[in-house]
Fold this sequence. Notes:
Blueprint: E1 4-10, E2 13-19, H1 25-32, E3 51-54, E4 57-60, E5 73-75, H2 84-95, H3 105-118, H4 124-130, H5 142-152
Parallel strand pairs: 1-5
Antiparallel strand pairs: 1-2, 3-4, 3-5
Amino acid sequence: MKAVPVRLRINDVDVEATVEPRTHLADHLRESCRLTATHLGCEHGVCGACTVLVDGEPARACLALTVSLQGHEVRTLEGLADDALMVRIKQAFHEAHGLQCGFCTPGMLVSAWDLLRRCPDPDDTRIREAMSGNLCRCTGYQGIVRAIRLAARPGR
């Protein structure tokens, strides 16, 4: 396949690259940009490990073709590292044992950030509903729900 030029904004940096049309965003982020927090799990859009933000909305990086994102803004977990809400979420995941092996964690963190940005004080039902697109094989989800609840209510 003939490689094509693409230009996108990744974590507030304009990025120009030449990619094959079949290159998924997750592969581009990991291999070309060296942004390895975006994990590849199922590669079918089911597990949520590859969740990133595209134009501020959660998206599966394993399904999105890089060429289709020409001119769009992508934010990965690395791009949220200094965000106050993300710092709070990461601390809560640590304190509430919301992670074990860590494979699903980047997608969980991005999805939790999106949830708390939209709904600052969700109940457990809303948390479970919002996180239902992210699969974890280790935690049983109890620690994840506790962590998001804790992040939503700092100091309480």
